[in-house]
Amino acid sequence: MASACTLAAVLIAGLVSLAASAPRREVVLRAAVRADASGPDRAVNLKRAVERLNPRLADTTIRLDLEEPPTPGWAEETARLLRAFAAGQGPDIYAIAHEFIGQFAKAGYALILDDLIKQYPDTYNDFFPSQWTSVKHRGRIYGIPQDTEARMVYFRIDQLKRFGWGDAQIQALPGRVEKGEFTLGDMAELAQQVKERGLVEWGFFHRPTRGPDYYQIILAFGGKLQDEKSGKLVLDRSATLDFLRFLHDAVHRYRITPSGMTNTPWRSILGPFGGEGKVLFFMGGIWQSGEFIRDYGAPSDPGEFFSRIGWTLIPAGRRGGKPVTLSHPIVYVVNVRSPNKELAFRVITEASSADLNALHSVNSYHIAIRRATTRLPAYRNHVWLNRATPLLEYATFIPNHEDFGRYDQIIYEAIQAVETNRLNPDQALQFVEGQMRSQLRDQLLVVE
């Protein structure tokens, strides 16, 4: 009997040994995450996720083939990815700006994630519910938010003091904006006055590239971008004309914005505002506070920083109107044609762990996408993130429509036209409407 037991033990040990020594299957997952100095952990967290997962996988080893293309913006990255997919070379995991979800979903390049999300309730039930709006297309979820942010109008406190504003007046500015008492027009006039006194070189800067910031001005004038019932894109003629007039006047009436704004390098925007104080107002985002500190010499001490730089919501276009901000999540997407869809999604889920999300948030000054992140000490103690989070009460998203890329390109061309004075605002609106009717057809609603 003893010898039989001994033989059984030896056999079991041998089987265990064979199982342990069995070769592990290597799975190569290709990932593409745009190289972005404002968010390097978007890529690095995928590497960290794979390092964590591999010891927990029974018979598989993941090898991550990570590409970080240096495309200048998310619109350009979308175009690059679409070309790669069309050539049959789409990655298993990719990162895009949320508004392009519709394009990838319509083209058949994005996996519907609703059922996979249900398999990881501890992770995804912890996400802030509002974030799911940013990754839905026609009612289905196609992406996982990786971060979110608030956008604001930054202003130079030190230059307002030199202009003669007292502490109480400066501290009251965000509240006045919130109540609709200080408008975009008031901002332009103040910027003009400070510039004419020789205290700054320019009064108002905005981003040079395509991007969501511009739509805040259309919304501030009471406009809409999408029809809730039909899902179609909306051209609000009145609000869009006010938007084009505002940008035209900033250059040619108030002379607070250079005519070549859309051809200005980012460093020539962020440096003069954040580092040198040569610009009074800048329409940007919370993550750029980190860039001001890291790259342009703004103080890292919160007290010193906020003695020089303040921020507020984007002012309403008309007195008594509502201020706005946009949130613009960058999202992870799984290739519907990937042979390893579930494994790719598991990597994304691990990359969405609270501690990894906190690393990204704290390092890049982006707001957390899940509750557990906000409870971690590093996040709780981050003054900039805590100050910016209340702005999300006013946040909305640009549309996830499959034709939004065309819409966005048309608007950007109109911006360039009015700022360079190739078209006046009325002519630019005619251009926008004509192009949108031609390109978007039955996916466009035109309202007055």
Radius of gyration: 25 Å
**Distance N to C terminus:** 93 Å
How many extended strands?
Answer: 15
CATH superfamily assignment of the largest domain? Periplasmic binding protein-like II
Q: Hey, roughly how much beta strand do the residues contain?
A: 5-15%
CATH class descriptor of the largest domain: Alpha Beta
In short:
With 448 residues, this protein is α/β, with parallel strands linked by helices.
Describe the structure.
This protein folds into two domains: 27-148 and 328-396, D-Maltodextrin-Binding Protein, domain 2, CATH 3.40.190; 151-325 and 401-447, 3-Layer(aba) Sandwich (D-Maltodextrin-Binding Protein, domain 2). It is built from 21 helices and 15 strands. The protein starts with a helix and ends with a strand. Helices cover 47% and strands 15% of the residues. It has helices at residues 2-21, 41-53, 74-86, 101-107, 114-118, 121-124, 157-163, 167-178, 184-196, 213-220, 237-252, 267-275, 287-296, 302-308, 341-351, 354-364, 371-374, 377-380, 383-388, 404-419, 425-440, and strands spanning 25-32, 60-67, 93-97, 136-137, 140-141, 144-145, 151-156, 202-205, 233-236, 279-285, 309-312, 325-326, 330-334, 395-396, 444-447. Helix 11 packs parallel to helix 20 (404-419). The protein is of the alpha/beta class and 448 residues long.
